Give the backbone structure.
Amino acid sequence: MSKLLLYGGTVITMDEAGSRAEAVLIEDGIIKAVGSAKEMEEIADASPDQDIRKLDLQGKTAVPGLHDCHVHVMGTGLNAAGIDVYDCKSISEIMDLIREADEKDKGSDSWIYCSRLDESRLAEKRPPTRQELDQVISHRGIFFIDRGLHYTLVNSKAYEEIGFEGNEPGIIKDENGEPTGRLHDKANGIARSFFNEVRMTDEQRARMLHYTAQEAVRKGITTIHGMEGGDMFSDKDIPIFLQEQKNFPLDILLYWDTDNIDNILEYGLSRTGTDMLLDGSIGSRTAAFDDNYEDGDTNGVIYFTEEFVVDHITRAHQNGLQAGFHAIGQRGIRFVLDCLEKSLERYPCQGHRFRIEHFGFCDDRDIERAAKLGCVISTQPSFSYLRGGEGSVYNLRLGTERERRGYPLKKFVEAGIVVGGGSDSGVTPMDPILGIHAALHQSYPENNVDIHTAMRMFTIDGAYCAFEEDKKGSIESGKYGDITVLSEDPYQVDPDRIKDIQVAMTIYRGNVVYEMKKES
């Protein structure tokens, strides 16, 4: 029997009373007691034959193990293995990076993978074309994923290897009817499936999953809600994920984004994927709105029929599974709530905690409707913090009036909706401290929440979104010994400095899985 005693600092329990303590005692991975340093020492020393490790926090602050409620675990690892083009300011800069990558790997026939393409940051305000990519590299495939994960871009070699017939929905063509290399909708899914299923090995999959897990504990995360498989990645990832799950230094809950509930049941999972794309993203102009985008002649896309969505939700609830969908635009959000209402009329289900991922640009009446229907929202405060405001991609696509209604965190909470915080990594960084900071500093101040609400999003309310609030999310006796130690107290520092707080230590089930001082 092992014990870990944390003392010498502040313990923010995040319990319902908002209490604080001086020390916490963890026994065999479970929190045994919380209280004063003297009380905890007495309890710890009561059994002198037991192995007790005493850790002096040296004035630091312990909080419940942090949650990230929306991570593409495989995608985050994959991004780290490729070329990050997010900081490129022009197409020519992207081309230079591709040339450098080809020179370093000369003679290889492996594809060059590029991540986080954000056309709004390029001088040309568009991505490269297939023909432009061919001028740089024509002997091997080039494969881009946009920052929002909603379209891909390929050169001719990759296009040919994928085997497109040319009439698949989502193949964007120029005025001469030639494919530009940009792929949306079904074509995007085909391209991603080819890359993930044909171009990747199981060894690579495992390595990418473990990369993300290690990065997560460095950021103080002890639980991830992993949005995996499906058209955005590959169902081949799932067996590897489940095989490796017990070896991760944190909990990664699997949300398998398959439209086939039989798959979920066959593997004995308790939840469906909740990031199945009902609509798209702002950056790719595919999030579904009532009115057209300010800089395009489209109002976005809804990818599923009402019949499918209602049937999918109903069957999930009939089998005791948590369900949900991705919805960002007002039309997409309204559509999924309409479908949920129809499903609940068909099969009433109490306490379902239907998840809507993002819930970005919603009408006020749909906030109230989501609350009444018992939904939970899994959202990303860093979206509008990093991508919103004057001159931003959100602003350019939507205009100021519509943009400022986006991600109204304060309204969600005031309506009584439980909100879990996440990153959508690799869309924004997997970093709960940044997420907490962002929740207090939205692009438009009327959408901000206070520090306690922000902390709840990444602790107890994050746990609630996955039916885990009885064992995670607060530092209380009987819960898991998952604790994040911070360099400073987020309630006491200047709000503008929250983002600068460092993760000093991450403790998972009573074991230290990350310690800042050990990094060089």
About this structure: The chain has a mean pLDDT of 95. The longest helix spans residues 202-218.
